[in-house]
Design goal:
heterodimer, A: about 300 residues, mainly alpha, MetI-like fold, two-stranded antiparallel sheet, 12 helices, 2 strands, B: alpha/beta, D-Maltodextrin-Binding Protein, domain 2, nine-stranded mixed sheet, globular
């Protein structure tokens, strides 16, 4: 469909020079730490790093023989699906409404983008305060409504808390992309459908949603990565993986074992596993989900 | 151009040469004391800096205990370790095993030529930080133990005698029931659940928490806290939780805030909470010894220490160690110790400072402040001397995780303690394997 335009570089070194800055950034901030992770995952070190022993795959054997680690795969799957789907759905609704607002649109948009500036740990603490069983505003309201709330001992409550905090933190990002996506849909298409008698709901499903699919797909990938990697601060500040291990997702365990328990070998091995999972998920998303995307 | 360069060079050289004549040697001290305790640490550094001119101690707050330890380790790996690192009792075994990273305090003091007498320290405290060969490895700093706090006003309102705190666990249950009947939503809670309800609890009843003298006797120690007495106690707490008499308020010291705020009427926690309670409680409060089971022979014995000690990091210039020794000497003086003890509620860690505090009439004026001391200054047994385990942080988290299942009604006390012992022993085995010397 598109006319191919090809710029041909005759120089042998110019392309390399042009990608050099990006390659450097990726090299320093991704490949180097990733290589270190893999190296550490086959080592056993004491806390201060004064002695290093090569242990082969012992760290991997250890983590996979731990039932708690295997259980956290399920926890992670539930958490990630809830965060990614919930975050995308809520942001989409908000973006559609913000897109329709005429007066004060800028104020709404600014307010919706604000949470993105909040650090994950702070987000965790904010939500923790609202839901704290004895002093939290929301916990109090729930109690008045006859719903007991105790995320310290009730696993579902705890999961709800971290999912809400994680979604809230990511909504702004999703919202921005959806808003940009909505702006790029030609108004004439929607008006034509309206003239043909399509109700708003039908217009959304047959025109807007398919045209937004590249944005939605992009956000799906980003949100899954977010849920997998960037949420440990929220969990550490709110539930610490409890009650029991019921909110200890994989990345929280990586953080706990590495930075609190000082078990670098075990933490690195878990990191490597996590990296492999996310890479696999991304490949799957591109192979299967992307086929349903209309560019 | 060239001339200008030469001039600036010689100025730089001159300043560099003249600098050592007046500059003090800076001693970096990383600590984990926030809030009122942070002010206390800063005052200690200031008191020392004002007392002499040669050294300057710079105290830096690095976050919670685990965060401070992690920061110290990361700095050591990067070659910028502080001179002094405050490490909580849970990290003691890790520090002891890291021989290349630390310099024993005994050696630092001996090399400095200063008069330093480790036997002046309270044995139950010093013993914890001393190597099997008798060398003191770290300087006891803020040592605490577990005590019982109760709200006298709430006791009065519930028809209980405010001057008679419950001495035994059956009495705690009865008092809690009365408090609940008087409308109290949180009759009893606890912070540091593993420390108060299993570690100190075991020592208090002269029962082993772990084999090999609770880990003091060697790295091949294994957990034993799933014995009949501990199971009975956790069952008792479980029943209290079911009736709303014991309310779980979270891991670590999360429950601490609920006592001074008046939310919870009775609590077991660190003696180091005293400063906070004194400052913030708007009600009459009392301090009492940890409750015990009256039918257990040998109870009450003594409680175990918590809190932190100061470790000296390796690889520093010789004059830094002299400065560290001089600072530690200052910290060990009875006057400084006694002032710290009165201010914070932490234990007086030398016998001299205890006597000084006693003779000043402080304990008479502030009833209850000697509870922690009396629980500690006793003849200890092999089962009560202290608990020192590798990967202790993980073991405590495991205890938290398993006990949460009990309070949540998912596991029985026996199953949870069995599981905690099994999972904790895996940590001990790994520590032993990683640190075989």
């Amino acid at each position: 469909m598109a006319i191919e335009k090809r710029v041909v570089f005759r120089s042998a070194w110019l392309p390399w020079l042009l990608i050099a800055p990006q390659a450097l950034v990726i090299g320093v901030f991704f490949f180097w730490p990733a290589a270190q992770t893999i190296l550490q995952s086959v080592q056993q070190q004491d806390a201060f790093g004064t002695s290093t022993e090569w242990v082969g795959l012992a760290n991997f054997e250890r983590i996979f023989s731990d039932p708690g680690y295997l259980a956290s795969f399920k926890t992670t799957a539930i958490f990630s699906v809830l965060v990614a789907v919930g975050g995308i759905a809520v942001a989409l609704v908000l973006a559609i409404f913000a897109d329709r607002v005429i007066r004060g649109a800028l104020a709404y948009k600014t307010l919706l983008i604000w949470p993105y500036a909040v650090a994950p740990a702070v987000a965790g603490v904010l939500w923790l305060f609202m839901f704290a069983p004895s002093i939290g505003v929301v916990a109090y309201a729930l109690r008045q409504a006859g719903i007991p709330w105790n995320h310290l001992l009730n696993s579902n409550d705890a999961m709800t808390l971290i999912v809400l905090a994680a979604i809230w933190k990511q909504i702004s990002y999703n919202f921005l992309f959806f808003l940009a996506g909505l702006n790029s849909i030609p108004k004439s298409l929607i008006e034509a459908a309206a003239i043909d008698g399509a109700r708003p709901w039908r217009r959304f499903w047959t025109i807007v949603f398919p045209l937004l699919s590249p944005t939605t797909f992009f956000l799906l990938v980003i949100n899954v990565v977010y849920a997998f990697f960037e949420t440990f601060g929220i969990i550490d500040a709110s539930t610490e993986g409890g009650p029991g291990k019921d909110t200890a997702i994989l990345v929280y365990k990586v953080y706990y074992d590495g930075f609190k328990a000082l078990d670098l070998g075990g933490s690195a091995a878990q990191s490597a596993v996590l990296m492999a999972i996310v890479a696999t998920l991304t490949v799957i998303q591109f192979r299967f989900v992307e086929k349903k995307v209309n560019y | 151009m060239k001339l200008k360069f030469l001039v600036s060079c010689s100025i730089a050289a001159l300043t560099a040469l003249s600098a050592p004549a007046q500059a003090q040697t800076e001693i970096q001290w990383w600590h984990a004391m926030g809030g009122p305790l942070g002010e206390w640490v800063n005052d200690l550094a200031k008191g020392y800096n004002d007392s002499q001119k040669e050294y300057k101690v710079v105290a830096t707050y690095k976050g919670s205990y685990p965060e401070t330890l992690t920061a110290g380790i990361a700095a050591f790996r990067a070659g910028n370790a502080p001179d002094i690192l405050q490490v909580f009792e849970v990290g003691t075994a890790t520090m002891m095993a890291s021989k290349g990273a630390i310099v024993p305090v005994g050696k630092v003091m001996k090399d400095s030529g200063l008069k330093f007498d480790p036997t002046g320290y309270v044995p139950a405290v010093a013993g914890y930080y001393t190597a099997p060969n008798g060398q003191m490895l770290s300087l006891p700093f803020n040592s605490s133990t577990t005590i019982f706090y109760y709200n006298k006003d709430a006791f009065k309102a519930a028809g209980l005698d405010p001057e008679k705190p419950p001495a035994t666990w059956p009495e705690v249950t009865l008092a809690a029931a009365k408090l609940k009947a008087s409308g109290h939503a949180c009759p009893f809670t606890t912070s540091w659940i593993s420390w108060t309800q299993l570690e100190s609890f075991s020592a208090w009843h002269n029962v082993e928490f772990a084999s090999k003298q609770n880990g003091l006797g060697g790295m091949d120690t294994r957990l034993t806290f799933n014995g009949p007495l501990q199971v009975r106690h956790i069952q008792n707490l479980e029943n209290m939780a079911k009736q709303g008499l014991f309310v779980y308020k979270g891991r670590e010291n999360k429950a601490d805030a609920t006592f001074p705020s008046g939310e919870c009427a009775m609590m077991t926690g660190s003696a180091g909470l005293y400063g906070n309670v004194k400052k913030n409680a708007k009600f009459a409060y009392g301090l009492a010894p940890l409750p015990y089971y009256p039918d257990v022979q040998g109870a009450p014995q003594n409680t175990v220490i918590g809190g932190a000690s100061l470790w000296v990091m390796s690889g520093k210039p010789a004059d830094h160690y002299k400065g560290v020794a001089s600072f530690f000497n200052y910290l060990s003086s009875p006057e400084v110790q006694a002032a710290s003890h009165k201010r914070t509620g932490y234990l007086p860690i030398t016998m001299a400072s205890y006597k000084l505090t006693d003779s000043s009439g402080f304990y008479k004026e502030n009833p209850g402040t000697d509870v922690a001391v009396n629980q500690m200054i006793r003849k200890v047994t092999d089962k009560s001397r202290g608990i020192r385990l590798g990967n202790f942080l993980q073991i405590r988290t495991i205890v938290d995780e398993e006990l949460e299942q009990v309070w949540g009604g998912k596991k029985s006390a026996k199953d949870a303690l069995d599981a905690a012992v099994k999972r904790g022993n895996e940590q001990l085995e790994r520590f032993q394997a990683a640190n075989k010397s």
